[in-house]
Design goal:
The chain crosses the membrane at residues 42-59, 96-116, 123-142, 154-173, 185-204, 216-236, 285-306, 326-343, 350-369, 375-397, 409-429, 441-464. By secondary structure, the chain is mostly helical. The chain has helices at 32-72, 93-99, 102-107, 112-119, 121-139, 145-159, 162-173, 179-204, 215-219, 226-232, 249-263, 273-278, 283-313, 318-323, 326-346, 350-369, 373-400, 405-429, 439-471. It is built from 19 helices and no strands.
């Protein structure tokens, strides 16, 4: 008889329903209308809430570029800029401040998915959100670029556990072909953050001189959602407690039965460091991670330098460069949801990744090698839509093709960890000396898009062969004989 995380954690007891030798759980039955209500409640309490928390996280990171444009880069010794109280970001100082966030962000991600299991999402996510929000507030009072860089290191440590924990948590609640839309909605809220961070910065710039503070300092005084997250966020489905008023135990058992029927890993095995680390031997995990690295190299490059590109390359003024950064991310959110919906409906992932990369490969030359300002701006739309829409698709791609709770946890951590490495690369691709054309950075973005197409093609060929062998009974996928097939 299979069990949840023990009676000590208050988790779901599986004694009241059947578990056979294939680990199939016969959960309670509901009408289609009742099932829709259950998933709607899960979506509201899980996807929407952590999506808003991630929105705050991304805004906190994007604030650096907006603060730079708002005067943080200026030299306070220059009488012309004395009122801006800048940090004199000459040379590579801004690049250094951008990239020092990522080494601790990468290092502390690997254990995060184990910690979130031990502490529970409410305590783990609520605490780190509270702490990094406090660091952001402290950044508003920094007077030295080196201190700001140190604060960014601390921010990287605190934010490291958030995204991989969210990716892992979402993957435990939904079946494979329910994930695409949910991951898209989760990340769309992040796109909203990227879109409105610039608009918010534009509005905040009117606070120049208020309380004797420069406008860029006000940008760091953001509102964070730690207390709301702590009060409302839910745990893993196998950790149900009577305090979960939004779902009954019977309804949670239904969720677990659906997940188990889909991929057979709803029941959590006892943690083993050997099992956890052995997942690294699966070469496909590193392919997913590399796809994510290529995507995030471009997305972070845009997040950190789009205001600069708009100002120096497309010649918008300081305020308009903040405003004009919003529409491409709104368009990206639309593409993101549509591709997530199509992926779930037709049960495909790889072709969508390739499609999004082609969008980006069309957008980059339009931005970098045409002369019409409107056409170049349209290129930003295509580039932002392609690379940002691929973030949730890649998350779903790996989640659909992984079995086992601890392998899923390891894969979530490595995926987001490589995303952090992409953040380091993205911090460096658009260099100050390459302004205003930024051609080397655009070439790097093109290379990332092309490499993603190559990797997905290799995985598609492998998955097609493995699925064909599994259907013929020659070889089982992931060591299971229950008909599991890879999602192409």
């Amino acid at each position: 008889m299979a069990h949840g995380p023990d009676d000590k954690t208050g988790g779901v007891s599986y004694d009241n329903y059947h578990t056979d030798s294939n680990n199939d759980i016969d959960g309670p039955e509901f009408t289609p209308a009742e099932e829709k209500k259950i998933w709607r409640r899960v979506d509201l309490r899980l996807v929407v809430l952590i999506g808003f928390m991630y929105c705050v996280s991304l805004m906190d990171r994007a604030n650096l570029s907006n603060a730079k444009v708002a005067g943080m880069e200026s030299d306070p010794r220059d009488p012309k800029f004395k009122h801006e109280q800048g940090l004199n970001l000459i040379g590579f100082r801004y690049n250094i401040m951008s990239l020092v966030f990522f080494p601790p962000y990468i290092i502390f991600q690997i254990p995060s998915t184990v910690i979130v299991r031990a502490l529970g999402p409410r305590l783990h996510l609520g605490t780190i959100t509270l702490l990094w929000g406090s660091v952001m507030v402290a950044m508003a009072f920094v007077n030295d670029w080196q201190v700001m860089a140190g604060m960014r290191v601390l921010l990287g440590i605190l934010e490291a556990g958030f995204f991989p924990s969210c990716v892992y948590l979402l993957s435990t609640w939904y079946t494979r072909y329910e994930m695409g839309k949910r991951y898209s909605l989760f990340y769309i809220l992040g796109c909203v953050a990227s879109a409105f961070a610039g608009l918010l910065a534009y509005g905040i710039m009117s606070l120049q001189g208020k309380a004797n503070m420069a406008a860029w300092r006000w940008i760091f005084l953001t509102i964070f959602m730690a207390l709301l997250g702590y009060a409302l966020i839910v745990g893993f489905p196998d950790q149900w407690k009577p305090s979960w008023h939004f779902l009954s135990e019977r309804e949670v058992k239904y969720v677990l039965s659906k997940v188990n029927e889909d991929r057979g890993d709803a029941v959590v095995e006892p943690f083993s460091m050997g099992v956890y680390l052995r997942s690294a031997l699966d070469w496909k995990i590193w392919c997913y991670a590399m796809i994510f690295f290529n995507n995030t190299t471009v997305t972070y490059g845009l997040a950190y330098f789009l205001p600069d590109i708009l100002r120096k390359s497309l010649h918008y003024d300081q305020k308009m460069s903040q405003i004009m950064g919003a529409p491409p991310y709104i368009a990206a959110g639309v593409v993101m949801y549509l591709t997530g919906w199509i992926g779930d409906k037709y049960q495909i992932r790889g072709p969508i990744i390739i499609f999004n990369m082609i969008l980006s490969l069309i957008g980059i030359p339009l931005l970098g090698w045409t002369t019409n300002g409107s056409v170049r701006y349209f290129g930003i739309f295509l580039l932002a839509a392609g690379v940002n829409a691929n973030i949730p698709v890649t998350m779903t791609y790996q989640a659909n093709n992984i079995r086992g709770q601890w392998k899923r946890a390891f894969c979530s951590a490595t995926l987001v960890g490589f995303g952090g490495i992409g953040g380091i690369a993205g911090s460096l691709v658009f260099r100050a000396q390459d302004a205003p054309a930024y051609k080397p950075g655009l070439f790097a973005c093109m290379a990332c898009c092309i490499l993603n197409i190559v990797i997905v093609t290799i995985l598609t060929l492998n998955f097609t062969k493995r699925n064909r062998d599994a259907r013929a009974g020659k070889k089982f996928i992931e060591g299971a004989d229950d008909g599991f097939l890879y999602t192409i």
